[in-house]
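Model: Ready when you are.
Researcher: Fold this.
Model:
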Amino acid sequence: MAISDHPLPADAHQTGDLSSTSTTRQAAPTSRSGVTPPEARATNHLTDVKLWLRTMQVMVDHWLAYESDDPVQDAWKRDPVLWSVRMGEIDAWRRFAQGMNKGLEVYRARVELIVDPHYTENAPRPDLFCAMCVQLFNVMAEGLPMRWCANCGNPFLRQQGRARENQNRTEGVKFCTPQCANADAQRAYRARKKLEAGK
């Protein structure tokens, strides 16, 4: 997967409106040898990549704020490009919905025509932003409570690292990984030793 080849419209950079932007990769023109010419590859502008990534970061922060019962508009305030002084809670949710729907639209039901073994008409071409949106959507749909690690403070849904058969613990856990649990235990052990030495 790759970030979209198409730059965002100028008004999207200024207003944060994602409803008219494209996140799907269109087939780049190729030469007779089947190689994409450099001028076609050069359309993938770094500034547009950065904007989509920062948009995704704000959308994740938006969802984390919602899970924490915090104002979701605060997530957008931290990004001067996407933030508007007139933005309220409902406006923040509109931006969130716009971004998610734009990223998820390539996964809708469709009819594809296999012209030959090397070409399929109407085939979805999801990019990195689309992939991140579907990951966030799956988190939302699963409905598991968000937890914050007692050691590193990072949010997590399941404790990683001790699962068997790809089943991770979701209940009775305080740490996101066994490493964080061990680090906390070591810190508590050193604190006890220091306290005992001071007696």
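Researcher: Now this one.
Model:
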Amino acid sequence: MMTEAIAPVGHSPVWCVAANLMANGALDAQGQNLPSGTKHFREGSKVLLIDWSPRDGVDAVAIGRHRKSKQWVKATVPIGRLTTLEVEVIDTAAVLNLVAKHFSGNRCPLTHEFATEMCAALVSSVGALRSEIAEVVLK
């Protein structure tokens, strides 16, 4: 049985948005079927969202298990592929190391308040994106 290492001394747990990647049947902005999963993550994978720019609003920085190596990796994912978003606290050492590298030199903003705001913004952005896709498909 494999167990996750708990955060080492010096790394405190962080809050992030946990989400799953949509399974088959997802559509892109032109109404075409998207391939399952992403280049790095399988469909249905749980990913931890640690950063997102509300200005561009199309991609989020995610940490998850790689589809082949099963190692923790950081990659961008299209927000239109996300489902079941919720705020979670994370204390896994490998994830905390990737978070520290992402925010290197800067103060890590992953507090409960930040994660809650990011989750609410992502939910509304994903909803708006899906309604745009639905309009394209219906036309």
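Researcher: Key takeaway?
Model: The first helix runs from residue 93 to 102.
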